[in-house]
């Protein structure tokens, strides 16, 4: 959403956590509007809470059409005091009452207001792993939640981990969703402020940051194999001129040609639509990544 976009601009660790995600959805109408202006194929907004509700009310999943033969087992981690416990109770009330529920809560935890390390105690991780959860819903605030996931993803055995900040409150009923017309028209932020007045500051700060981002002249060149088809000498002359002309600019180039990647400060390796490696110049894997590309 917009909050993630703005946070990614100035927080490298947060940005990397988003890049490392297997799935990122456009949970915010400003992202959809910007995509349309740029001609990007982003058809509609998909909210994290809407995705969770779709799973919760999915009759196909509810009838055990999963690898385990059971509905998805969910673990709630975070949220205000008491919210995760209530969300777990209500999710299981749906399940036990015969309601066609696609999720069953197998645990919850409210870690309070400590730092990431304090929230990552061995007992906490062991408790989550022992629950047998299929889906870990983290709700700690965007920056802390993403940092917690990155810090613990290697220790967790839960196959699906996602930061869905408002889901715990929505399932618990402590905060209500905006009417559908407000969600689709980009006015859900007004409803959220009504429900949680403290959010006004975040929305104001993100709105101001977005205005600065759109108005600030930050030239970006997007290139697709700019020297394909050229002989080696000509290609290197073009790349040298390109480098000289790009002072103060950012270049993003899609390529499988080694000579083009050699001018990069950072390489992202993509296989089957997924980023499988990210290395900066000077790091141990940089030369090895270059060697995988096609030579002249």
Description:
The protein has 15 helices and eight strands. It has 296 residues and is α/β, with parallel strands linked by helices. The strands form three sheets. Strands 2-1-3-4 form a four-stranded parallel β-sheet, with helices on both faces. Strands 5-6 form a two-stranded parallel sheet. A hairpin with a 2-residue loop joins strand 7 and strand 8 (274-280). Helix 1 (2-10) packs across helix 2 (12-19). It is globular. The mean pLDDT is 87.
Query: Could you report the average pLDDT, rounded to the nearest whole number?
Result: 87
Helix and strand succession? HHHHHEHEHEHEHHHHEHEHEEH
Low-confidence stretches: none
End-to-end separation in angstroms reads 41 Å
Largest sheet: 4 strands, parallel
- Provide the β-strand percentage band: 15-25%
Shape field:
globular
Kindly state the percentage of residues in helix: 40-55%
Number of strands: 8
Helical/strand content category: alpha/beta
Radius of gyration from CA coordinates: 23 Å
Q: What is the strand arrangement across the widest sheet?
A: 2-1-3-4
Count of separate DSSP helical elements: 15
